[in-house]
Automatic annotation (TrEMBL):
InterPro entries: Allantoinase (IPR017593), Amidohydro-rel (IPR006680), DHOase/Allantoinase_Hydrolase (IPR050138), Metal-dep_hydrolase_composite (IPR011059), Metal_Hydrolase (IPR032466)
Organism in which the protein naturally occurs: Propionispora hippei DSM 15287
Record's subunit section: Homotetramer.
GO cellular component: cytoplasm
Enzyme kind, highest EC tier: hydrolase
One biological process term in Gene Ontology: purine nucleobase catabolic process
Cofactor(s), names only, from the UniProt record: Zn(2+)
SUPFAM superfamilies: Composite domain of metallo-dependent hydrolases (SSF51338), Metallo-dependent hydrolases (SSF51556)
Keywords attached to this entry: Hydrolase, Metal-binding, Zinc
Family stated for the protein in its record: Belongs to the metallo-dependent hydrolases superfamily. Hydantoinase/dihydropyrimidinase family.
Gene3D superfamilies in the cross-refs: Metal-dependent hydrolases (3.20.20.140), Urease, subunit C, domain 1 (2.30.40.10)
Protein name: allantoinase
Length: 454
């Protein structure tokens, strides 16, 4: 007797969509059954007309707990994620007080968050100037990757210079650790921003001009050169521009161990949205031109950009406002998107670009699972894996309004968008945590740790 039988589903795999039933026992996929095989189960779900994806993994979110919970916290962030069809998030180590710099902080954060999350969650570890000798301990505690900044990361965190990054890549290689980089060249950005502010140029276009693609490209090329030298491994966070993606494509062709992500906002919005609408559209790297946005899609399609994530980075309305002295430069740079990434990406990929739904499964589940060490347990609808599923109704029309957002602060660049195809059910280890926008959970999400590479 199975615990759950999901029948009449269009099961989305890494390369195709198959008609099948999925049986679940003890929170795991027990069988994927073709055809009309009658099997006994305690609960039966009929998904006629709907897609069953392996549970969506958002590999880059900032839920800000502990320490910055006036912006977001796990209880709210994870419920927003569940409402958006996400079954696992990987939470960033900064905008935490303290940042997750060692094993002790990691364990404290894990204890603090127990019972709070609606969905499963993993942690990035910090990678700052002072904790290079703590990385192996963090990895052993369960950190899925280490976040490193090449430009000024703001308070409570430090950026690394090129010599330090080289050392880190060598160190991480010894125990199979993965560093993820925020790539914008520190010196170039500091120079441009300082000059812009000194000249009283504090507007929206000035901000865009002070964070040019050249800064992102230089930083990525520096990482690529170091990978070549050290035979290390790197993940490039939030690629915003096709020229950067092209550099990564070339590095992959060369055989370097590099992966990359982009965010839905780089595929949907442009710098003109920031200019016209204001800081709701401010992020870093910044939004680029319409032509860049269109070209970036090619690199999603060809697999250069392995993962699509939200980089959910909320703040208060006051923090998001332009400042009196520093204008747009003083507004918080970050976009809240964990609840709306899947539906907006689905509509773009499947409806507008005509991509196969398997693309969504690859970039939002399989690839993040593989890169962040979860592929033994998550990322695919195959026997033995966690029964994490995202159910999509391809006919469901949606319009994103502020009042349906479950974030602590109900504003986002995504409000006002409309489309078709949305998550209608989120299942984590066999438990339905969201059905038709209603959340059923009691904080049953669990911490996931890095598992052995396959
Ligand atoms: Zn981020």
């Amino acid at each position: 007797m199975y615990d759950l039988l999901i029948k009449n589903a269009r099961v989305v795999t890494a390369d195709e969509v198959i008609a099948a039933a999925v049986a679940v026992k003890d929170g795991k996929v027990a069988a994927v059954l073709a055809g009309e095989t009658p099997v006994p189960a305690r609960q039966v779900l009929d998904l006629t007309g709907k897609y069953l994806l392996p549970g969506v993994i958002d590999c880059h979110v900032h839920f800000n707990e502990p320490g910055y919970t006036w912006r977001e916290e796990f209880a709210q962030g994870s419920r927003a994620a569940a409402a958006g069809g996400v079954t696992t998030v990987i939470d960033m180590p900064m905008q935490n007080r303290p940042p997750v710099i060692d094993q002790e902080v990691f364990v404290r954060k894990a204890e603090l968050l127990q019972g709070k999350s609606a969905i499963d969650y993993g942690f990035w570890g910090a990678l700052v100037k002072t904790n290079l000798d703590k990385l192996i301990g963090l990895q052993e505690a369960g950190a899925l990757a280490f976040k490193c900044f090449m430009c000024n990361p703001g308070q409570d965190y430090t950026a690394l210079d090129i010599a330090e990054i080289e050392q880190v890549l060598v160190t991480l290689r010894e125990f199979g650790g993965l560093a993820g980089f925020h790539c914008e060249d520190h010196d170039m950005i500091e120079r441009l921003q300082t000059a812009s502010l000194a000249a009283g140029k504090t507007g929206r276009r000035d901000y865009l001009a002070a964070r040019p693609v050249e800064a992102e490209l230089k930083a990525v090329n520096d990482i690529i050169a170091l990978l070549d030298k050290t035979e290390g491994r790197a993940h490039i966070c939030h690629v915003s521009h096709p020229a950067v993606a092209e550099a990564i494509r070339q590095a992959k062709i060369k055989g370097l161990d590099i992966t990359a992500e982009t965010c839905v906002h780089y595929l949907l919005f442009t710098g003109e949205d920031l200019v016209n609408e204001g800081p709701r559209f401010k992020c870093s790297p910044p939004l680029r031109t319409a032509a860049d946005r269109e070209k970036l899609w090619d690199y999603v399609l060809d697999g250069t950009l392995d993962c699509i994530c939200s980089d959910h980075s909320p703040c208060t309305p006051e923090e998001k406002a332009e400042a009196s002295e520093t204008g747009t430069f003083g507004a918080w740079g970050g976009i809240s998107g964990v609840q709306t990434s899947l539906q907006t990406f689905w509509d773009l990929a499947v409806n507008q670009k005509g991509a196969d739904p398997s693309l969504v499964a690859r970039v939002m589940s399989l690839n993040p699972a593989a890169i962040f060490g979860l592929y033994g347990v998550k990322g695919a609808v195959i026997p033995g894996r966690d029964a994490d599923f995202t159910v999509i109704d391809p006919q469901r029309n949606w319009e994103i309004t502020a009042d349906e957002l479950l974030y602590k602060h109900k504003f986002s660049a995504f409000t006002g968008l409309s489309g078709t195809g949305a998550p209608v059910m989120t299942i984590v280890r066999g438990q339905v945590v969201m059905e038709n926008c209603r959340l059923r959970d009691e904080g049953t999400g669990q911490l996931v740790r890095r598992c052995r590479e396959e």
